[in-house]
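User: For my dataset I need records formatted as: sequence, then structure tokens, nothing else. Please produce one.
Assistant:
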Amino acid sequence: MRNVIAADGRVSNELSAVIELIAGDPELEEEMTLGMVRERLRAALADFAEAERVHRFGDENMLSAEIDELIDEYGEEALALDLAVAKASEDLSILIEALLDDTDEETALTLGAVREAMAGGLVASLVGEGLLEPEDEQTLMAEINGFIARLGEDEPAESVLRFE
């Protein structure tokens, strides 16, 4: 059984986005470690610098420093997705907020309950209200299923809300 590291919000949204992007690579054949993220990040930055023939001192250096700090703390073999902060898309956040508005405050809304509501026609209802597009239903279902696979059905839905 693997040792899961709880994401504590120390990982920036930018690095979390990089981790999620790499995790979505269909050619990735094994679970992604922090060491793999560092390798891919360095390769991408080298390719960018070569292509543009410029070297900026900005976000790329901050991301490199951040991944190096995480490797120092957790090791190269730590699973990167365990540290990435999981945040819902804007459309899924709209859906969760609509459910929260209709849910008793004393009852915690879970990711499993969100999926059940979606399967029960919530997306169609929000499409009817003009809050979502009809073609978003499959994408939203895949997104909620991904969160459930990663965090579990009993995870509070509020934990993945995007506040921007």
